[in-house]
Design goal:
346 residues; mainly alpha; 13 helices; 2 strands; globular; disordered C terminus
């Protein structure tokens, strides 16, 4: 077999330039990029940079949560291509929500749900798992459309409270899910057309859904984020297809993305406790230095977690998930479809 035939056969394994089996490394890359953005932004609250650097840190914070949410929605869509088990999705989301909520209760000494990033991700996983009981075809999408329409027309029922309220931030999750669904069909695979179609849908929903109505800058930001995340994903998928992610500087971002749950809580601890190195440097340089050191520490932590998996919160959650699923009556409505496996990852 020559190289041309090998490349052609490899290309046939992709919809949306996506491997049909195994972990989607491109999603890890985007999660890792979100960890970089979030860590840099949060450290600007500990050591404030000056001038345009402060605006740059704010921009990184502006894009980090939408990237996390959009990628999480995409991960669900990719997972559903080969694994149909609604209760598994609900358990997965419930455990993530419980972990994020429990950490908030411990830190803030309050039982109020403040909807941080992993609380909303967990809720979206669980909610989409509930919709999966309608099947994986048009019935589910019609039900989703009805719910979104109701939230658009009835502002009094919108869950719009908290740091990252389900409305409107949940639209990033749903948008990522729909974007990945559309991209998996070869005859719908027209990258920029569908990317900006999703962005336009976000613009439409935002225009009629926020209260008070957002200004043009907010709407432009909403559209810009969808388009930017879309372009980042197709770039990452093409890079993954060429087998470059593991052999280039992207490998650091991929490693952060593989352990994003644990790294999120690690950098949150530094942020909440306002740990600050007494650096005799100008504020901007001190911010860059502390952020770089923290990012290096996060990478070192991934090396430990790879060697000792029990140190990873994601691994612990998967073990808890497996324990729940193994005790689920197989022939009940909570059980899996045929040929479902316990070892799948989202």
């Amino acid at each position: 077999m020559n190289n041309h035939d090998s490349v052609r056969q490899q290309g046939q394994r992709y919809f949306f330039h996506l491997p049909l089996a195994g972990r989607v490394v491109s999603l890890d890359l985007l999660r890792g990029f979100a960890i970089f953005c979030m860590t840099s932004f949060h450290q600007s609250g500990v050591i404030q940079p000056e001038g345009s650097w402060k605006l740059f840190a704010g921009f990184l914070g502006f894009i980090s949560a939408p990237i996390f949410l959009t990628v999480s929605g995409m991960a669900v869509a990719f997972h559903e291509r080969s694994h149909h088990w609604p209760f598994k999705m609900m358990v997965h989301g419930g455990l993530i929500f419980a972990l994020a909520y429990g950490s908030d209760v411990f830190v803030h000494r309050s039982f109020q749900v403040d909807w941080d990033i992993f609380q909303i991700i967990g809720a979206c996983y669980a909610g989409l798992g509930l919709f999966d009981y309608l099947g994986y075809g048009w019935r589910k999408f019609i039900a989703l459309a009805i719910v979104l329409l109701g939230l658009t027309l009835l502002p009094n029922i919108r869950p719009n409270h908290g740091v990252f309220p389900l409305w409107p931030f949940g639209l990033y999750f749903i948008g990522g899910y729909l974007l990945a669904i559309l991209g998996q069909s070869p005859w719908l695979c027209r990258w920029l057309i569908w990317g900006f179609a999703i962005a336009g849908l976000g613009y439409f929903l935002a225009d009629f859904s926020w209260s008070p109505p957002p200004d043009r800058k907010q709407l432009a930001g909403f559209v810009f984020l969808f388009a930017m995340i879309y372009l980042l994903l197709i770039t990452a998928l093409e890079t993954e297809r060429r087998n470059l992610l593991k052999t280039s500087g992207f490998a650091v971002l991929v490693r952060w993305g593989q352990y994003s749950l644990t790294l999120y809580f690690m950098q949150q601890f530094v942020t909440v406790t306002h740990l600050c190195l007494p650096l005799p440097l100008p504020s901007t340089l001190a911010w860059v230095t502390q952020t770089a050191l923290l990012l290096a520490l996060l990478y070192a932590a991934t090396l430990l977690m790879k060697r000792y998996p029990f140190m990873d919160l994601g691994w612990l959650l998967r073990q808890a998930e497996q324990n729940v699923l193994k005790r689920t009556p197989v022939k009940s409505f909570l059980g899996p479809n045929r040929n479902e496996q316990f070892q799948t990852k989202i």
